[in-house]
Structures are given as structure tokens and as C-alpha cells.
Amino acid sequence: MLPPITSPPAYLSATFWESTEIHIALPPSHPSPPSHLLEVAKSHLPEGGCLFLTSGTTGTPKWVALEKRALLHSARVVNAHYDITQTDHWLLSLPIHHVGGFSILARAYLSGSQVTCSQSKWNPETFFESLSLSNSTVTSIVPTQLHDLVSTNAYPPSHLRLVLVGGGRIQTDLFKKALALGWPLCATYGMTETASQIASQPLEHDRLNDPETLEVLPHWHTQINSNNSLIIQGPSLAKGYITVTDSQSTWEPIDPTIGLQTSDQVRLRIDGTRTFLQFLSRNDNVIKILGELVSIESLEQRLSLLLPPSFPPFAIVPKPDPRRENRLLLVIESPDAAPPPILTSLLPDFHTQIAPFEHIDEIKTFPRFPRTELGKLSRSRLAADLF
């Protein structure tokens, strides 16, 4: 097994990509996984593969298992789509323990492109300096990073020809502001289970139009079910998941003949031989913050374990934010304007158990929660009343 984080050259050689070793893309703050994770991975990825922790950190650790050939297939298609060759130079500012960053190394390996790493803590001024000094022609960022770059009113260097933006929904106003500054953006949509991209703006796309209508890349077969949830099949699809507890690792396969049924609701449009995708929403109470998936249900369950039985009903509600995509509000059902005093001591303890991006940013009270006929909380109506 290769070290979880090393200098990029190790990942840009045939030694890595042609080996049958298993690479565990371990986040820096995550504890070392048990040995049975590697044993299960080897039995299901005999030709070598990579394991990526699913975005977000609440709940039992779950790893997405991707074959190396799946990552390379995706990289080959993406390189062709954007005409990435050995004359290009990547600036890598995304963490390589996420598939969005790691996939750049696969693309660079196949194309022979150079890679400059900017793996220090995110700072728009440092990023721009690295972009300029490295003469990079292509880079990949998330919407939060785009927001920070636009906030500096910086113009891109002339040698930059392409900026891929993925990992979350892009506000149209932000997209247009970046284009007005000259940033050569291309919106993308993907997930860990697909080894990065599923769809992208066509390069000939009128960039002043809505960035949410993307073209499905040619290696994917897409369809939707009765709920408009995306189902995807293709050669870059993960083989399965590995769920890890202290005592064992459990394999959950993804059947390639059925495909992956996602929790993303989308709209598909066929135009001749091309398919276009528009992301609508997620239907499993999962949101994104700073490009990370966050399960509202998991956070509420974890918080409820700390609260006394007499604590009033509560809900964690995402509030749209132009930089982070969402912030988290803890809403208490109470006629009192002030939240229960016990939260002063409980919330710091709660925050030690979760990732920083999952922290509660604000506490509010609400006199009476809106509920369905069956008495369940109506989250959509509560959000509408709050915002």
C-alpha cells in the first residue's frame, strides 16, 4: 500500500498506475484504517485500486472502491473533452484524498502534463501567485474557491486557458462575475463513485448562459427513475463500498448491469447523439458545504445523543450561503426567544465530534414547527418560514 499522502511524482509514474497495489486516500486528520479494510479491498480489486472516504465525516466510515483502470478511463475521456495534452500544466489546489484532486494526477499521467502542487491551506492570494509563477494552463477548483477569487477582483493570467469548477452548485451570478473578470470557467458535475466527472459544459458553450446545463460525457449511460433520480452506468463506475467498524469491513457491491442509483434529482435532455443534464436537488437530506457532503440526519442523530430527554424538538436547517453553499442553523421549537441555556455547554462538545465544516453556525427558536398530516416535520415549509 502506498502512503496516503505523498508528493505527486509518485502518482505520475507507471509504477503506481500499473501496479496491483491498493491505495487508501486517507485524509490527514483521519485515523489509520484497520488492516481488514485492506484485506477486503484486495479481494475485490485484484488489479489494483483506490479507496476514497465518502464526503462528510459523520457516521460509520464508508469507502468508495474504484479500480485504477476506472480512474484512468475517466481521465482519458476528460483529457479528450478538454484537449489536455503534454503542453498543458496543471495547478493542483484540491486535496488528493478527494477524487476531484486525485483524478488530476490520473489525467496528467496519461497526457504527460506537468503538475504544480498548491497543497497548503487555501488562500486566494497564494493560489493566484502559484498560478502565475507556474505558468499553469489548467486548474480545478470548487465554488467556494471561485467565490474567494472573484472577491479579490483578480484577473486571470493570460496563460490560463481552462478552470474546471465542480464539487457543488455554482450560483449563476457568481459564474457571470467570474466570466466578466476573464476567468475561463467550465462548470462540471460528478461524484466519487464515478471517478470524477459525469457531465461538463461543452467547450463551445455560450459561457454567459446558465452554468447548470451540462453535457454528459460519452462514457456514461444515464437515465432517471420515477422520482427523477439519476441512474448511471459506465466503465468508470466504482465497484462498490466498504463499510468499516472496529471488528470488520463489509463489502457492498455496485451491480454494473443495474448501475448506481444516486440521490441526485436531475433533468435529462436528449439532442441527437448528445445528452444534457441539469442538476435539480438531492432527495436524501444530504447537502454540500465547502464541497463536502453533509448528512443532516446523521448530525441530528449525533446531537440528540447529547441532549436530555426533556429537550424540545429541534431541527438542523441548511441556510444558503454564497461562499460555503450552505451554513447550518440549529432551530429549536420554543415560544421563548432565547435558546435553552444548556446548549452553551453542549455545542462545544458536539463540535469536537464532527468536522469543522459541519459545525452549527447559528441557533434560532421557532414557536411551532410546520408539520405534515402525519405529524412529521415539514423541512421545506420550515426553511421557507425561516428564510
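the 2nd protein, sequnce then structure:
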Amino acid sequence: MSCLCCSERLNDKQGCDKQNKANPMKPIKIHNQVLDESQSDFLILAGPTAVGKTDTVLTLASEHDIEVISGDSRQIYKHMNIGTATPEPEILDALPHHLFNELTPDIVWNAADFYHRARQIINEVLDRDKLPVVVGGAGMYLDALRFGLFEEQHKDPAVRQKYQDKVDAGEAEVLWSRLMDLDPEYARTFHFNNYKKLMRAFEIYESSGMIPSKAFSNSTDPFEKQGTLVVLDRDRKLLYERINQRVFMMLEDGLIEECQTLLEKGYQPDLYPMKTIGYKEVYAFLNHEIDEAEMIRSIQQNTRNFAKRQLTWFRNHLFDFWIDLGS
């Protein structure tokens, strides 16, 4: 988690340079890359977990008048700040943020919800003559924002129940392996225990005859505003070291206590948001299913695997800039 003197960095910028109102994207520099996208209305900062998105946002905020929109599938939830690497309160207070800490964990938030809310917020931020910056690593959410949704098509309750029964019977990993054979591009974007995505994938496949990645690519609702997608990356070894260190910092910051607090508030580990990496391993530890050392190793390994899947997703989808943040 970032620990920065953000207030000074953000408050140093008083007001916005209005000379480029009609073109808030020009010019912007990220690391060593100048973005000269004259037709763009908003910026998307994507990349794997722990790559350095928050630090990049703070640098942008010191030079441009921006508002941040979370493109993360978990930071929308209250009481889950540590495990989701939500920016610290002083950052949230010093810079306008949207789609952070808005819902309780018993409410489902999905790509369709994000698609509608994020587009609305982007238009509102543009009306304020500011630059919207969408930040996150949820590839499906970012694709929905830019290209539209396929989510409402090809729904079949009978097919969904068929695969619900298979998941309930403990066949999720077998189904995921089958999906890897059918559609490796899509299967690589999530773990087999993401039952919702897994069942939806087979529902789409059986109802439409199309593999999910093909079906989603047929979306016909592009956003009227043009975004520039920047994917941030680092040397793989360094990224993994940052992930490992972040896990230790999360535990020092109180991840276990955060999980206990969620239980005390009545939110059970079987809720979809709480099956997130970091939370599910802590709950296994609290239930005496694994010891502390195994908990730490599991969070680190699962997070590294997740980062790898994120990078695979972004490499296989359209992006405008791929920036190596270096060391």
C-alpha cells in the first residue's frame, strides 16, 4: 500500500490550466512517455495489482486537474480498504474520487453497474472541465466502459441452473479446465472459484454457440467519449517482489483485523466480494484450516498469479500505450 505525503503533492496544484479545455489529454506525461492523444476525452490507467497505479495518479494530480474513477471490482465496497489496496484516507480527501467505499459487501456490483455509473461520472467530470482518470485492473470492466456490454444477452435460467448444480457438486475446477480448452483467452482472466463468471461463461456458450471472448467482442454500444488506455507494467521479478512486500504491509496495516471486523458486522465469507484474494486466505487461517505461514504464502502466490492473468488480458486486448515503469 502506498504511504505518501499526498496532501502536499496534490495541494501544490491550485486550479487547472484552462488552455486545453477542449483537449484535456494534451499533453500528459507518464514516466518517460508523452501521451499526445488529441481526440481523447479521458484517461484509463490500467495494469496489474501493485504495479504503481496510485503513485502514477498522484504524479498526474500534481500536474493536471483530475478526478479519479475506480475501475476496480472491489474498491467499491466499504469495510474492505486494506485487502483491496484502496488509497489511504488522506489521498481520498485531497483528490476527488468516485466509486470507492460506496456499497456494503452484501450488494452485488458488476460490469453492468460499472458501465452505467462510470460513463455518467466521466461526462460529469468533463462538464467540470477536469480530466477523468479511470484507474484499475479489471479488464472486463474497462472493456465494458469503452465498448459496451454483452452481459444482458443470451441468458438461459435452465442452463445457468445446470452449471450451478455442477458447481455445487464440486466440479468448478473441472469446468474451468474445460473452459481453458474452449476459450483460453477468457478463462485466463479469472480463477476457477469465481463461480459467477464460470457459470456465465458456459451459459453464453450453450445459449449462443459462441465462446465468451468472441461474444463480448461483438458488443455494439461503444462510449461516445474517447478514452486512452495506458497499461502500466514493470519487470516481472520486480513486480512479484512488490506484491510479496505489499502482502506483508497489508498484514501490518491490519488485514486480519479488517476480516474479523467484517464478520462482526455480519458479513460472511461466502459473500462474493469476500472471496477476493487476501480475504479468503485470512478466513481460512481464522478457521484454523491453514497456519499463518501458509496464509501468507497463499496470498502472495494467488496475487502473483492474478497479476499474471491481468497482464495476459491487457496484452490480448486493444491498448494505446504500454509503459514500463522501470525500477
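Residues 6-149+220-234+309-324 form a domain with the Rossmann fold fold (CATH 3.40.50.300). The mean pLDDT is 87.
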